[in-house]
Amino acid sequence: MHYLCSMSEDTYKTIVAPSEGIYTEKRSKFIAIALPVRTVEEVKAHLETYQKKYYDARHVCYAYMLGHERKDFRANDNGEPSGTAGKPILGQINSNELTDILVIVVRYFGGIKLGTSGLIVAYKAAAAEAIAAATIIEKTVDEAVTFLFEYPFMNDVMRVVKEEEPEIQEQSYDMDCRMTLRIRQSMMPKLRARLEKVETLRFE
Question: Which residue segment(s) compose the domain that 129 sits in?
Answer without folding.
Answer: 11-138
